Every structure is written in structure tokens, then in C-alpha cells.
């Protein structure tokens, strides 16, 4: 099995392991990204086979909307429900306290709303996303209202961050989120107190939300490839 095949199979295994935890009658937060996409596909298969019944999904992105419809998962919205039973989503970094950096797909604002509301929040990642300290491999995404991006970047520089406006790929100009905003990616030399930084950034006028997810995660399912064989292990608090 090639390394690429093993990686894909491992993502599928993690997605399936997460989908298997969803019970009939649940309201499910459907995350964004490649591993979450496999989870949505497997949920659809479980519904189709009749093994799972009476679930509704709440998506965190347009990507999730498209996939849920493709795989036959009925959708609802936050104004129509009063709770979410389980949310499943990927992450760009996971630290030993199960705090996360998310936002590589620029969907972190909607993800945080859904994931924080869920009774149980499960993160699906591969082992490359596990870090000793947040910010060590991934820039921290901050969603910003377009008119405020210049003053926000100056405020972030005063906090010791190095901000850059995320530019589109195959699109001229900045990335635009599902909410119509910009994303500023920030390099911090060291994020010593994620909870404090999350609040500080969100208090800058013009910032909608940032990619630090602190004390939200209940369980992490980690996919690994060892000797060409994919496997899944669990990390919980």
C-alpha cells in the first residue's frame, strides 16, 4: 500500500470511528475538512442502511451543506433546535490539554458556535496534528470584518504576533469566509496561555472570532499509519 493510500485509508477509518459514535435520534454537528468529509459520508451510509435513524445535522460550512445533501443527511438550523447532542470536526493542531487551533479551511467561526454548543465534541485528526504547544506548526487564523483588517493587524502586532492577510488560491485577492469576512493568519513565537489569548484577540474591535478552541474538546480520535497499517487511537481528558 502506498503512503498516500494508507493516509487516505487512515482518514476514512477515523471518520468511520467518529460516525459510529452517533446514536439514532441525535442532533449532530457536522464539521469541515477532509476527515470530517469521510465522517459525513459514513453517517449517510448508516442512515441509508437503516442502522441509524432519525438524525439531523447542523453544518459548519457550505462544504458540509453540500456533502450532507449528497449523502442524504437531513439538515436543520440553530434557531430550530435547543441543543446539539454530538459534534464531530477536524483540527489543525491539538495540544496535550486537548486545546485546538482550527481555521485552516476558514470555517472556524461557525465551527466554534456548533462545537461549543454540543454535549459531546469529538475531534478527528491524524497524528501529525498533535503538538506540544499550540502555534508551533500552524498559524492562528483570525476572522476579521473587511473594513477593520488594517487596524486589527496593527493591534495583533502590538500583542507580539506577525499577521498576514490570507490570500485566495485560484482567486485574485483575499480569502472570503462564508460570512463574507477576511482571515488574518498570525504567527506567534509562543502561545503560553491559549485561554487568555483567545479572549484578548476576540476583544479587538473588528475581530469576529479566532481559531483557538479552549476547553471545548471531549475526545480526540487520532489516525496513525504504522508500518503501512492504519489504526485509530483515542485521547480523552
From TrEMBL:
HAMAP family: Rib_5P_isom_A. Its EC number is 5.3.1.6. The gene is rpiA. InterPro entries: NagB/RpiA_transferase-like, Ribose5P_isomerase_typA_subgr, Ribose5P_isomerase_type_A. Homodimer. Pfam families: Rib_5-P_isom_A. Belongs to the ribose 5-phosphate isomerase family. This is Ribose-5-phosphate isomerase A. It comes from the Bacteria. It comes from Floridaenema evergladense BLCC-F167. Catalyzes the reversible conversion of ribose-5-phosphate to ribulose 5-phosphate. Gene3D superfamilies: 3.30.70.260, 3.40.50.1360. Keywords: Isomerase. The active site is at residue 111. It is an enzyme of class 5 (isomerase). One of its GO terms (molecular function) is ribose-5-phosphate isomerase activity. Substrate binds at residues 32-35, 89-92, 102-105, 129. It catalyses: aldehydo-D-ribose 5-phosphate = D-ribulose 5-phosphate. The keyword Transport does not apply. Pathway: Carbohydrate degradation; pentose phosphate pathway; D-ribose 5-phosphate from D-ribulose 5-phosphate (non-oxidative stage): step 1/1.
Amino acid at each position: 500500500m502506498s503512503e498516500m493510500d494508507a493516509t487516505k485509508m487512515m482518514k476514512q477509518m477515523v471518520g468511520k470511528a467518529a460516525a459510529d459514535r452517533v446514536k439514532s435520534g441525535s442532533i449532530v454537528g457536522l464539521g469541515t475538512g477532509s476527515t470530517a468529509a469521510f465522517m459525513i459520508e459514513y453517517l449517510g451510509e448508516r442512515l441509508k442502511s437503516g442502522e441509524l435513524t432519525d438524525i439531523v445535522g447542523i453544518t459548519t460550512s457550505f462544504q458540509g451543506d453540500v456533502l450532507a445533501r449528497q449523502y442524504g443527511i437531513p439538515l436543520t438550523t440553530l434557531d430550530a433546535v435547543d441543543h446539539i447532542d454530538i459534534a464531530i470536526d477536524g483540527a489543525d493542531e491539538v495540544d496535550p490539554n486537548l486545546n485546538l487551533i482550527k481555521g485552516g479551511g476558514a470555517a472556524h467561526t461557525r465551527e466554534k458556535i456548533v462545537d461549543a454548543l454540543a454535549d459531546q465534541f469529538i475531534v478527528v485528526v491524524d497524528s501529525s496534528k498533535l503538538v506540544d504547544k499550540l502555534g508551533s506548526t500552524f498559524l492562528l487564523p483570525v476572522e476579521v470584518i473587511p473594513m477593520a483588517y488594517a487596524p486589527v493587524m496593527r493591534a495583533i502586532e502590538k500583542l507580539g504576533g506577525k499577521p498576514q492577510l490570507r490570500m485566495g488560491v485560484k482567486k485574485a485577492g483575499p480569502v472570503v469566509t462564508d460570512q463574507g469576512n477576511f482571515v488574518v493568519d498570525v504567527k506567534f513565537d509562543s502561545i503560553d496561555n491559549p485561554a487568555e489569548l483567545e479572549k484578548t484577540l476576540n476583544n479587538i474591535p473588528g475581530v469576529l472570532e479566532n481559531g483557538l478552541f479552549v476547553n471545548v474538546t471531549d475526545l480526540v480520535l487520532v489516525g496513525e499509519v504504522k508500518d503501512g497499517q492504519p489504526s485509530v487511537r483515542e485521547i480523552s481528558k
